[in-house]
């Protein structure tokens, strides 16, 4: 009866998609847990069109109009809110990603936005340079004679930057050349969190899992690792509160709103700092990996970009945030890299309030999503969608639907850290390519295909050989 209802009488029964996805949640769960969700959903959109039913109560969209309808704000339209998918561990304190209430979210965003303002970026830039220069030093000493796995090293530098700006001190990864155990635990938890979130497709299983979480029936290791993470974050945050940094950081405005941080308030602050560290570092590192891979695969684009950078600057100290913002081809390369390899590739689903999305009325309570990787690889949005063509972002006559690429989301939930991320991307790419040439160790490496996606990408090694550029010091 349940299967028949889902197939014939469910409010989403009229939407196209495979029958196996419509009748039960296990099709979606299989691909979500298997890490191949992106490729499967793209295949379904190519077969069924711009809207596909991918689970009994979930629709996938891929047009620019759907981005605006789901995540944008229009007078007279009801808002699409977050659902329980964002609460992998429901007993955790709220943080800006998990909170669904618009008013609560707006208050959190206002408190945090000061740390991401233009004046904050100006104050923070010297620390960004500090860690980039440490990375350049390590490349010089380690990776001229032997290749370096830049999947690791890009994570090291971005975690150090964000660690200092969120907790007041870095993790020391670039200097030591080793991952911090806290970061290793975080990455190790990605698959576990993804497993928990996959149960959102099955309400009954989700209910059972939440009881198990509440009663602590999962393997003890899960809770021990979470406790270890929380204890370390608490120690760092206490030091940050006791010794405020001299520059504007992410938590400064929020911290100033209270005289004393204890109990639940402290737990919420710690969750905000942890979330900002993960979201603000892993995403930028992922973008750097993708852009570097595509650059090394395309000699034409590589030569054009290095020529722009090496013509614009005659010394390293000229490479600043403001100066790199004047390099149009660099910015186009970044835009194209984010289209082809968006850091949050699977998207961030919302609950329909009973509204129209891309011309289709979606009943109240249905889950809707735009998958950024899919939207960026559909030929109806981008001509020759798999090609690395930065020129599409510079050509005013280009017919591509560029609004279909939204790596930072849009509307009231647009990424708070997007300007810092773009600053890091411009500076790291410019400084590396001013001083070094890069080359993939394996010219036939299909690096993206070797990835799996579990909300974040599970990135394989990215071995790159560096060589010095004459006269670049």
Automatic annotation (TrEMBL):
UniProt-recorded Gene Ontology molecular function terms: heme binding; iron ion binding; monooxygenase activity; oxidoreductase activity, acting on paired donors, with incorporation or reduction of molecular oxygen
Keywords attached to this entry: Heme, Iron, Metal-binding, Monooxygenase, Oxidoreductase
Cofactor(s) this protein cannot do without: heme
Residue ranges crossing the lipid bilayer per the database entry: none
Top-level taxon: Eukaryota
Residues where heme binds: 415
Classification via PANTHER family: CYTOCHROME P450, CYTOCHROME P450 MONOOXYGENASE ASQL-RELATED
Family indicated by similarity: Belongs to the cytochrome P450 family.
Protein name according to UniProt: Cytochrome P450 oxidoreductase
């Amino acid at each position: 009866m349940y299967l028949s209802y889902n197939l014939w009488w469910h409010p989403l029964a009229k939407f196209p998609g495979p029958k196996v996805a419509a009748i039960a949640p296990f099709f979606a769960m299989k691909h979500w847990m298997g890490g191949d969700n992106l490729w499967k959903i793209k295949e379904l959109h190519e077969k069924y069109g711009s809207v596909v039913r991918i689970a009994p109560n979930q629709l996938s969209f891929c047009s620019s109009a759907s981005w605006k309808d789901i995540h944008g704000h229009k007078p007279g339209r009801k808002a699409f809110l977050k659902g329980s998918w964002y609460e992998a561990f429901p007993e955790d304190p709220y943080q800006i990603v998990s909170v669904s209430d618009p008013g609560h979210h707006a208050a959190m965003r206002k408190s945090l936005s000061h740390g991401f303002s233009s004046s904050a970026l100006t104050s923070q830039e010297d620390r960004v340079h500090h860690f980039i220069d440490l990375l350049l030093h390590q490349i010089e000493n380690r990776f001229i004679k032997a290749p370096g796995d830049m999947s690791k090293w890009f994570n090291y530098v971005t975690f150090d930057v964000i660690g200092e700006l969120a907790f007041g001190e870095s993790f020391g990864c670039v200097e030591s050349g080793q991952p911090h155990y806290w970061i290793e635990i975080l990455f190790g938890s990605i698959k576990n969190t993804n497993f928990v979130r996959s149960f959102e497709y099955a309400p009954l299983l989700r209910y059972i899992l939440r009881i198990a979480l509440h009663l602590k029936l999962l393997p003890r290791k899960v809770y021990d690792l979470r406790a270890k993470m929380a204890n370390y974050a608490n120690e760092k945050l206490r030091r940050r509160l006791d010794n405020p940094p001299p520059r504007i950081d992410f938590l400064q405005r929020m911290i100033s709103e209270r005289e004393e941080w204890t109990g639940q308030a402290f737990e919420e602050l710690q969750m905000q700092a942890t979330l900002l560290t993960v979201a603000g570092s892993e995403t930028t590192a992922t973008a750097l990996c993708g852009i570097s891979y595509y650059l090394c695969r395309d000699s034409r684009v590589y030569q054009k970009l290095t020529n722009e950078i090496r013509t614009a600057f005659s010394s390293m100290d000229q490479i600043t945030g403001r100066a790199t913002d004047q390099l149009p081809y660099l910015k186009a390369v970044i835009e194209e890299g984010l289209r082809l390899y968006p850091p949050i590739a699977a998207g961030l689903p919302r609950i329909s309030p009973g509204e129209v999305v891309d011309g289709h009325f979606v009943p109240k309570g249905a889950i809707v999503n735009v998958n950024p990787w899919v939207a960026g690889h559909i030929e109806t949005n981008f001509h020759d969608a798999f090609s690395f063509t930065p020129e599409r972002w510079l050509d005013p006559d280009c017919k591509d639907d560029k609004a279909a690429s939204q790596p930072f989301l849009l509307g009231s939930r647009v990424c708070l850290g997007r300007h810092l991320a773009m600053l890091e991307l411009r500076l790291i790419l410019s400084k590396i390519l001013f001083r070094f040439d890069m080359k993939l160790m394996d010219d036939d490496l299909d690096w993206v295909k070797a990835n799996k996606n579990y909300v974040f990408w599970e990135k394989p090694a990215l071995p790159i050989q560096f060589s010095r550029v004459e006269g670049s010091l």
